[in-house]
């Protein structure tokens, strides 16, 4: 089922109050400032004009022409009749309004869905934060706008979604889409999994769920998506208290966590424990589709190299045994005090040439599936120099980097990111990134 009319719309109508600070006004502002190139129609029975981001719009008293999507931010009790009225003119409705099943108002939600079905309209929400179709320059939400990229974020919770988008910006993540689906009265996580699995701009899918309503359908959709793309899941409501909180939040059934865990594994999805891991996994998959389990560690500092080795082994990955030929070649140009076994320790004064040659030599070793390159630069070697070595080294295998820390590596990290290489700020986080890639290996 195509949901392009939501994520790549050519026209949109926004319903609500257009006073500054009101939700409909903020969504309108986001759509305009985000550079949406299609038709935008603000609607409110009082009419008038609204000025937003240097443009003036006439507020229509009612919708009188067809649009792809309607974004609705009006009091809950008026939503069913509005959908009945505009149903023949729209393909999809994003209902931001709260006050439905999440507060026990199931009847009103049922009525809204019935009116939508009567007209063949698909509904996202209610009680949601809206949607982004980033490559369609469509920011139909009041959340912070993001940079284009390959991650589609599906979130049951609007607030979590907003926090995740802001965090994603800080982490240098690029997004293809965002959808907060709230009460899932019509479209739910399974629909979005299937849609993004086939969306050419989406490289990986991140899913935040508290619970699902149709277990069997969810498993089928999850398997369908996981066969095509990495699906990263953060499940909330694992504990008994958390499950109760989830039920009152979006009216969902959280169910037994063990059942979910088994389902994720069976479908080939990747479960993470916390938000930080969600982004680290997304960063890894934005760079590489998969990796093998045999890892070579290259470092200029013994301690972080040991930490990385410990973590890799703990995560079930292998510390690759370098061939005699590789060791011999490394010894031919590395200073005698360097360790040429794995991890390869280039020692503190390692420069551009030492890093570049080592990466290239180790990369050729057929016992190595992926590389973890660590850099803790001394004050006399700029981190940009080592970043340049990583970028320019000829290697056709996944290379995950850990430059640390803070101000010392800011320039190098910026240069890496400009060249599509994401930094993992600790050896442990870099090791986890390799594990997630290996799970798809």
From TrEMBL:
Superkingdom field: Archaea
Signal peptide range: none
SUPFAM superfamilies (alphabetical): NAD(P)-binding Rossmann-fold domains, Succinyl-CoA synthetase domains
UniProt entry tagged with the keyword ATP-binding: yes
Substrates-to-products reaction catalysed: acetate + ATP + CoA = acetyl-CoA + ADP + phosphate
EC number(s) from the headed UniProt entry: 6.2.1.13
Entry protein name: acetate--CoA ligase (ADP-forming)
């Amino acid at each position: 089922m195509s949901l392009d009319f939501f994520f790549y719309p050519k026209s949109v109508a926004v319903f609500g109050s257009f006073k500054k600070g009101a939700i409909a006004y903020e969504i309108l502002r986001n759509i305009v400032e985000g550079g949406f190139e299609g038709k935008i129609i603000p609607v409110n029975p009082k009419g008038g004009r609204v000025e937003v981001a240097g443009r003036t719009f006439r507020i229509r008293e009612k919708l009188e022409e067809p649009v792809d999507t309607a974004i609705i931010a009006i009091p809950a009790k008026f939503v069913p009749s509005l959908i009945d009225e505009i149903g023949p003119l729209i393909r999809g409705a994003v209902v931001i309004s709260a006050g439905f099943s999440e507060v026990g108002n199931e009847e009103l939600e049922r009525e809204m869905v019935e009116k939508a079905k009567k007209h063949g309209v698909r509904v996202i929400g209610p009680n949601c934060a809206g949607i982004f179709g980033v490559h369609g320059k469509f920011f139909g939400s009041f959340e912070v706008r993001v940079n284009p990229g390959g991650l589609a974020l599906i979130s049951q919770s609007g607030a979590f979604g907003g926090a995740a988008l802001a965090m994603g910006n800080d982490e240098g993540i690029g997004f293809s889409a965002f959808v907060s689906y709230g009460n899932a009265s019509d479209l739910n996580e399974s629909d979005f999994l299937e849609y993004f699995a086939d969306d050419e701009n989406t490289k990986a899918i991140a899913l935040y769920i508290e619970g699902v309503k149709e277990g069997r359908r969810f498993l089928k959709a999850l398997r369908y998506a996981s066969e095509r793309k990495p699906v990263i899941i953060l499940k909330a409501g694992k504990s008994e208290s958390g499950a109760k909180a989830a039920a009152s939040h979006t009216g969902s059934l959280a169910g037994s966590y063990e059942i979910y865990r088994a389902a994720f594994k069976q479908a080939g999805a990747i479960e993470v424990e916390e938000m930080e891991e969600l982004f680290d996994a997304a960063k890894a998959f934005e760079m590489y589709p998969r990796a093998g389990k045999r890892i070579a560690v290259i470092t200029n500092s013994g301690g972080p190299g040991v930490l990385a080795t410990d973590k890799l082994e703990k995560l079930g990955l292998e510390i690759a045994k370098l061939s005699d030929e590789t060791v011999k070649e490394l010894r031919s140009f590395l200073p005698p005090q360097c360790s040429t076994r794995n991890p390869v320790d280039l020692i503190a004064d390692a420069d551009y040439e030492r890093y570049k040659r080592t990466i290239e030599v180790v990369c050729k070793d057929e016992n190595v599936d992926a590389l973890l390159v660590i850099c803790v630069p001394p004050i006399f070697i700029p981190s940009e120099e080592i970043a340049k070595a990583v970028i320019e080294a000829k290697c056709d295998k996944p290379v995950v980097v850990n430059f640390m820390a803070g101000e010392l590596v800011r320039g190098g990290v910026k240069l890496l990111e400009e060249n599509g290489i994401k930094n993992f700020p600790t050896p442990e986080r870099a090791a986890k990134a390799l594990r997630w890639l290996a799970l798809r290996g």
